[in-house]
Amino acid sequence: MTVETRETHGFQAEVQKLLHLMVHSLYSNREIFLRELISNASDAADRLRFEAISAPELLEPDPELKIRIDFDTAARTVSIEDNGIGMSREDTIRQLGTIARSGTGEFLSKMTGEQRRDANLIGQFGVGFYSAFIVADRVEVLTRRAGAPASEGVRWESDGQGEFVIETIDRPERGTRVTLHLREDAAEFADAFRLRALIRKYSDHIAFPVLVKGKSADETEAKEESANDAKALWTRPRSEVSTEEYLEFYKHIAHDFQDPLTWSHNKVEGKHEYTSLLYIPAHAPWDLWNRSGSRHLKLYVKRVFIMDDAEQFLPLYLRFVRGVVDSSDLSLNVSRELLQQDAVVETMRGAITRRVLDTLDKLAKEEPEKYAIFWKEFGRVLKEGPAEDHGNRQRIAGLLRFSSTADDNPVPARSLADYVAARNTASDDPLASQKVIWYLTADSFNAARSSPHLEVFRKNGIEVLLLTDNIDEWLVSHLHDFDGWEFRDVKRGDLPAEKPAQDGGEEKPAATEHGALIERIRKQLEAQVSEVRATTRLTESPACLVLGEYELGAQMRKLMQATGQAVPESKPILEINPAHPLLQRLDAEQHEARFADLARLIFDQASLAEGGQLEDPGAFVQRLNRILLG
Question: Could you state, in order of their start, the residue ranges of all structural domains in the chain?
Fold first, then answer.
């Protein structure tokens, strides 16, 4: 060792914030540090076993992979050591001094005071190493990468206060040893019984032996014995795995402190043999909307770890799923490129996708409260499915949830099956007798609920779905139908005419009865509208704007504008309600200037009711003032 090899570095700013958060937020749940460090050690052993497939010499001279836990009660230390892949000097600086994830700093800066006390946030970054500082006032790491000479060992040390020291050392052993110098109030963890209990509680599923060696105050000599089952959990029959073991395994692979909503453990035998253990998390990760980000499905081949983010086995709209896939059919030296071309992978992808959708369907039917949590966290991602996965379009449609005129709840809870079941298809009303799922798009629930387009549907007691996500119009364009029921926008095209009133009731006025009024309005608004016509939609409002059958709606226009695409120009149709007092006043107006002001005002009102923006708010105010002043 030479003086020149010793350097002092400052932590990345985000790491300093995270360290402060770890120490001050997780004090009441300190024991999780051992789970996180054992999980890291297990990952290191997995990675070495994978690299040894093509370079078996990396395992020499210590081919048996294991994790050792040492402790010293008197010195108040606990050490976690593995003989896995290890780290080079550069690896150590990068992995223990920075958080190499885009957006991390922004995420941390936006966390509120309440969120800073929420342990669930920590696991979203996969930075379990820093949990060591919950119980330790000083942490020392000794490591050497497999295949590197003993002279390239590395020592890293920090008190977690803003800096770390790193130096090159001689280290004969490959792998990593993390030594925690415990705080005085954490001395309880330097005890054999306490450590073994925590390993059984949190890490029994680890596929490598976890050996505990150390001498407690009441023991005369140190003993070493395995504290875990050391058998991959997904290889065991479901009947032999407890709920607690499933939950802890999820926290191990997902680095999540919160229990998942549900999971599916399945072994397939026959033409293809594989095992899948898939989890549905209870909260969205911070990078959920990064479509190019890493996935969280671990791939094993014959129980040998291959990769962390096997994106080939699930479509992008299911990127929230966590879990493990273990295949007996793939080659141990499989690469990402080979996976993309493998027919076995394509078959497995289809089956695993259906398994996830079946799991969600079961959750929705048997535990609707949990499904409501899932929808709140992941519903918008699932809406990407019909466009990406046409073969499962109807399955996905059955999982979608919407707001509806059937209740005043802004939380989307209405399924398409609920809608279809509730519709009175026996009615002879033209609006109700068709197998049509009526929907309305808007920027918010309140805007949708107060839309004038709903008036005729309310009058006839017909339910309308209220679609308020900015991707809903795009979603419906790919759904087309559900269970034989066609989707139709209440704002678009012509509505079927209402049936004539019975028992001497008045017929709905025909457009020809108001042809003169319609023509006068058309001339005043020909620059703003493509057509003016009498409405079949309105019962209370004076007018509304209608889209042509194939026109883009407001949501699609906004999506295209946000992505820099050219939006085709179009003019809406203005539908007027001749029975409304405003239209009757307009019809009787002989003064052309006042007629023009009132016609423009009616058009502006219709635009505002749609959530649109006025082209010239100042002119609108002036027109309104002139009308008010008479």
Answer: 3-231, 235-373, 401-501, 513-548+556-628
CATH of span 401-501: 3.40.50.11260
Q: What burial letters (b/e) apply to 69-93, b meaning 16+ CB within 10 Å?
A: bbbbbeebbbbbbbbbbbbbbeebb
In this structure, which CATH number among 1.10.620.20, 3.30.70.980, 3.30.565.10, 3.30.470.20 belongs to the domain 3-231?
3.30.565.10
CATH topology of domain 513-548+556-628: Four Helix Bundle (Hemerythrin (Met), subunit A) (1.20.120)
**Which helix (H) or strand (E) is 345 found in, with range?**
helix 343-366
β-bridge mates for residue 544, sequence order: 575
pTM of the entire structure? 0.75
The residues that bridge with 488 in the sheet, in sequence order, are 438
**Alpha carbons within 13 A on the beta-carbon side of 447:** 15
Q: What span, in angstroms and rounded, lies between the C-alpha atoms of 137 and 13?
A: 19
Q: Which one-letter DSSP state was computed for residue 153?
A: E
Token pair of 381 as six digits? 């991602």
Give the pLDDT confidence score for residue 215 in this predicted structure: 62
Chain centroid to CA 225: 41
CA 515, distance to chain mean position in Å, is: 53
Show the DSSP H helices in 52-135 as ranges.
89-97, 104-110, 113-116, 120-123
Angstrom distance (rounded) from CA 240 to CA 362: 22
pLDDT by residue (tens digit) across 239-286? 999 999 999 899 888 878 889 999 999 999 988 899 999 999 999 887
Residues of the chain with pLDDT under 50: 1-3, 100-108, 110-127, 500-508
Q: List pLDDT tens digits, range 427-466.
A: 666 676 678 999 999 988 988 998 999 999 999 889 999 9
User: What is the share, in percent, of the chain residues with pLDDT greater than 90?
Assistant: 49
What does the H/E/C string look like for 180-226? EEECHHHHHHCCHHHHHHHHHHHCCCCCCCEEEEEECCCCCCCEEEE
The CATH code of the domain at 235-373 is 3.30.230.80
Is the Cβ–Cβ distance between 145 and 88 less than 8 Å?
Answer: yes
CA distances from 587 to 323, 378, 582, 600, 623 (A): 68, 52, 9, 14, 18
82: Cβ contacts below 8 Å, ≥ 6 apart: 41, 42, 44, 45, 65, 66, 67, 68, 175, 176, 208
H helices of 9-86, in order, are 13-25, 32-51
Q: Are strands 573-576 and 531-534 parallel, antiparallel or unpaired?
A: parallel
Count of alpha carbons within 13 Å of 79, Cβ hemisphere only?
A: 17
User: Could you tell me which of 596, 473, 594 has the C-alpha nearest to residue 524?
Assistant: 596
Classify burial at 124, counting beta carbons within 10 Å of its beta carbon; exposed 0-12, middle 13-18, buried 19 or more.
buried
Name the nearest CA neighbour of 12 among 116, 137, 96. 96
Residues in the chain, overall count: 630
CB 574 within 8 A of CB 531: yes
